[in-house]
């Protein structure tokens, strides 16, 4: 049953330093706002420090009533939701249930909902194949902790771009599924992904590519259960970057 919690029941945020990295488990709190439809904020409290964080910028959103894993970096942006903002930030919804918490706006402005710049164009819009020259190219598809689902409004553009590049270059496609089996600590608990998750993620991406017109015979599937973190990613997302599938397109140079 959903409970409406007054803000005084939530722990007040303690000072946080911009650039600080955090990782913790928390029950999410959804804050209603006056900024219009879909403009609410997502908050989570780190039980070890009592600090409340705004995780609204996470591409994968929390779910009311389900525990979440939060990984992010403290941002220097203003508090518009009632918690210290994290950006970049990643959230993973876990199977563990928790209290369903919704609180009122209480004067926090939040921000209006906007269409993501990376949102996939309607299928009625003609696709244009990328022009040569074609070089070996990687496309990274993110997943949340412990999950093999393709996340709506986040990964479809990446997969479509990979399919268009593969068709234009007539390339060989290597799909490498990764799983973070090494493990890490969050809120005093050890978290790790099962080895089989690497193959499950690769299978999901392979199927999506085939559905988008990439010939199955040109796709090779591999797995890596001990992947390296992606270079160039923020330190706060180093572990998160291991939860991915890498699509590598090697163009056919015979006709170029």
Automatic annotation (TrEMBL):
It comes from the Bacteria. It comes from Massilia terrae. InterPro entries: OmpA-like_sf. Keywords: Signal. The lineage of its organism: Bacteria, Pseudomonadati, Pseudomonadota, Betaproteobacteria, Burkholderiales. Residues 1-18 form the signal peptide. This is OmpA-like domain-containing protein. The keyword Signal applies.
């Amino acid at each position: 049953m959903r409970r409406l919690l007054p803000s005084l029941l939530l722990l007040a945020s303690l000072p946080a330093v911009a650039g600080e990295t955090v990782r913790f488990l928390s029950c999410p709190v959804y804050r209603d706002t006056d900024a219009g439809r879909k403009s609410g904020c997502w908050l989570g409290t780190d039980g070890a420090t009592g600090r409340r964080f705004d995780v609204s910028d996470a591409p994968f959103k929390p779910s009311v009533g389900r525990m979440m894993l939060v990984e992010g970096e403290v941002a220097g942006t203003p508090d518009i939701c009632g918690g210290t903002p994290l950006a970049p930030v990643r959230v993973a919804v876990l199977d563990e249930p928790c209290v369903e918490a919704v609180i009122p706006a209480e004067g926090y402005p939040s921000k209006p909902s906007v269409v993501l710049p990376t949102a996939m164009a309607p299928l009625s819009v003609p696709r244009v194949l990328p022009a040569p020259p074609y070089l070996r190219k990687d496309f990274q598809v993110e997943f949340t902790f412990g999950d093999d689902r393709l996340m709506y409004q986040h990964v479809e553009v990446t997969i479509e771009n990979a399919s268009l590049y593969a068709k234009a270059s007539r390339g060989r496609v290597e799909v490498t599924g990764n799983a973070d089996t090494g493990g890490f600590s969050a809120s005093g608990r050890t978290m790790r992904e099962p080895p089989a998750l690497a193959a499950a993620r690769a299978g999901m991406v392979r199927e999506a590519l085939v559905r988008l017109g990439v010939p199955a015979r040109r796709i090779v599937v591999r797995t890596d259960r001990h992947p390296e973190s992606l270079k160039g990613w923020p330190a706060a997302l180093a572990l998160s970057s291991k939860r991915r599938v890498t699509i590598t397109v090697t163009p056919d140079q015979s006709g170029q």
